[in-house]
Description:
elongated, 45% helix, 5 helices, four-stranded antiparallel β-sheet, binds zinc ion, 9 strands, three-stranded antiparallel β-sheet, alpha+beta
Amino acid sequence: MTISTITILEWSIKLVMDKRKERGRQWGFSRGRDLTGMRFGYLIVKGRSQNLDQDGRTLWICECRCGKIVEHISDVLLKKNTTSCGCKWQENAARNHKILKNKYTMNGVRVDSLTRKTPKNNTTGFKGVSLTVRRGKEKFRAYIEIKGKRMELGLFDNLRDAVKARKEAEEKYHKPYIDAWKEKKFSE
Ligand SMILES: [Zn+2]
């Protein structure tokens, strides 16, 4: 590419950008209704900003109920895409998280974590059983977690015994929570 073609390319890009900006400005002003004082969800419009968005459109200064100041174009506000600075979304997420937590918690245990699939980094393909080397010999370590605490179930020479130990521990320590949860779920 010669210098002149680069120059022409830059020049045409600038032309397109300027046109886009100009169109944005016109469009912005045609929708230039004063939104000052209007409320959109948690947001109250305080006035027109000195800034324009990247397309040259008018930005409005909005104060959120939480006190945060954000700037938006009128379309974003009028189409109700945005009704807070983002804090409302966070509130919803937190509420949903709490609902899920309550839904899946049985006597302080997250039942959904008990039935979760074998993690990808698992070395044996069996949940709660890992491959380990002790004094140059391969061993299978079985363990189980309950209420965030890990309980060791022993070291085994073969995988089958380790899996068996884990299954027995699941029956003993996990199943009561799962059963109680299922019962609660069906009685609701
Ligand atoms: Zn907010």
